[in-house]
Structures are given as C-alpha cells and as structure tokens.
Amino acid sequence: YNSGLLSLFEAEVGKTNDMLTTLSALELMYELAESPYSSQFLLKTSLLQLLCSLISTETVDSPLRSRAMLLSGRLLSAVQACVFAINRRLHDTDECESAFEALGQIGTSLQGALLLLRPSVKHVITSAFCRSGRGVALAALHAFGNIVGVERTELDSDAEASLQRLVYEVATNSSKLTPSGLFLTVLRKEPDFRLAAYRLISALVSRQWCLIEVCSKQEIIDIVTDETIKNGMDARHACCLAISKALFSSNMANDTALAGVTGKLQEAVRRGPYLPKREAQPIVVTAERF
Q1: Count of the separate structural domains present in the chain
Q2: What is the largest CA-CA distance in the chain?
Q3: d(CA 74, CA 28)
Q4: Measured distance CA(144)–CA(162) in Å, rounded
Q5: Residue ending a domain, choose from 175, 205, 232
Q6: What torsion do the CA atoms of 55, 120, 129, 174 make, to the nearest 10 degrees?
Q7: Residue 178: in which H helix or E strand, if any?
Q8: If you ran DSSP here, which 8-state letter would residue 286 be given?
Q9: How many whole angstroms separate alpha carbon 38 and alpha carbon 288?
Q10: d(CA 13, CA 76)
C-alpha cells in the first residue's frame, strides 16, 4: 500500500478503453481481496467508487461489469465482517460509545442502514432505552436516529417492517411495554437526552405506527411543545413540525379525539423555536417626580 502500487491498479481500472488491461487489473485485485489482510488495504483506496461506476455504466463492456460485481461482493464481505466486529464491541463498556458512534456514521447512508438492520439495530434500540449508562444510552439514541433516517429517506418496505418489529419487541420486553412509553422515558430526562429524543422522533414519526404512538401519549405532546432549555428549542420545534406534517399527511388529521393534540402542535409550530407562549405586554410605569 505504501509503495503506491495499488494506485497504479486503480488507474488501470479507471481506463475502460482497454478492456483486456482493465480486466487483468480487476482479476488481480479480485485475487488480492481473497485475503482479509489485503482487503483492508483495498478498502483504503477509491476502488469501491470505481467499481460502482463500472457496474452502473451501461456503456461499459459486460465482462468488465461482471468482474467488477464479483470484486465488489468480495470487498463487501469484508465490510460485513467489520460490522460484526464493531457489533462485538457493543458489549465492551470501555469502547461501546465509540462503537455506537461508528454504527451511527454507517447508518447515515441508506445502504449502511440496511447493512446494519439485521446484526446491530436491536442492540442499538435496547441500549438507547433500557438500563444503559448515560454515555452509552445517549450514543445509542443518536446512532438509532441516524439509522432510521435523520438525514436521509426512509428504508425499503422489508426493512421498515423489520424496524417496526424490533422497536415493538424491545418495548414489549421492557417495563414500559410500548414505544410511546420508551419515548416518554427519554423525554423526561435531562436536556441532552431530550435533544436526542427530539431528533429521533423527528425521523421516526413519518411512520404511521410511530405517529400513533406519539399522539397516544398526551405527555409526549406536552413536552415537545414546551421546551424551556435554549439549546433544545430548535430541535423541539423541528420535532413539532415533523409530527404536525405527519399528522396532516395521514388519515388521522380529522380524528376528533386528536383535536387537542392537533391544536397544540399547530400553536407550537406557529410560535416558532424561540417565541414565548404569550406575547409580552408593555408595562407603563408613571415616572416619579422629584
């Protein structure tokens, strides 16, 4: 790797005008990728991006795309092994916060979230809500927010079904019994936890099952519409917006039982992140005469 030899092979892979040369470079890298030791060096390069380009470009010759797919599969098996290695560190109290942060970074992309869903998400959810130390729980909450889509679109239908099942499974096995109970427990904690909870709910509430859970607990609505800590006001307002948008996009918008919830959310959205509940009234004081 330090010799720069791999960069020469990368250059050859990028030259698709000579199929035989590119195919030879891909073949050599495929053999290198068989060794876990070699794979770690291949993953340090821009090879995966080059392979994605080869696979997705229609004008590339079919033999090149085929070999690129095989090489990608071999490299991604190393990535999967890396995820499982990180997953094992979730049980190490000295390193689990870093492990959760790493999983959160992986989960920011749709592909990364799908990769994590089966081996890691249940442990992330459990650590976020159930009897973890402060630092671990906070790291897990933020990781869970990344995985469910704070900064990207939702998962595919199979992954969404799996996510819902895991959340309800963790809730059922806890003392809170429901996801709404889990959310409320975190929202009752100190500001750092509320901030993480606002972020998580903002991402999750576009799902109908989560919207129902949030709107079923009046205390959740009371908390998210009444943040008093300055650092949490933006996140609180974003959360109100997300809940309100999900509610008015659903078939629950005209439910008379939710009229109070709807009104409270609309009022919180109207006030904005920093405006007080009541408009300030000027007080006129008569000047004292000397």
Answers
A1: 3
A2: 100
A3: 13
A4: 14
A5: 175
A6: 130
A7: none
A8: P
A9: 85
A10: 18
CB count within 10 Å of CB 73 equals 12
CA distance linking residue 1 with residue 203, whole number of Å: 40
Q: In the numeric block, which tokens belong to residue 209? A: 């099952």
* Residue 53 and residue 16 in contact, taking contact as beta carbons nearer than 8 Å: no
The number of residues making up the chain comes to 290
> Under a CB-based contact definition with an 8 Å cutoff, are residues 240 and 222 in contact?
no
What confidence tens digit (pLDDT) does each residue in 80-109 have? 667 777 777 777 667 778 888 888 877 877
Who's near 1: CB < 8 A, 6+ residues apart? 41, 44
Q: What is the pLDDT of residues 218-257, one digit of tens each?
A: 899 988 888 677 777 888 888 889 999 888 888 877 778 8
The verdict on residue 288 lying in a domain is: no
Mark whether 97 and 171 lie in a shared domain: yes
CA atoms within 13 A on the CB side of 17: 2
**Residue 126 contacts residue 167 (beta carbons within 8 Å):** no
Residue type, 29: M
**pTM, to two decimals:** 0.68
Residue 177 · residue 232 · CB < 8 Å: no
Structure tokens at 145: 């927010």
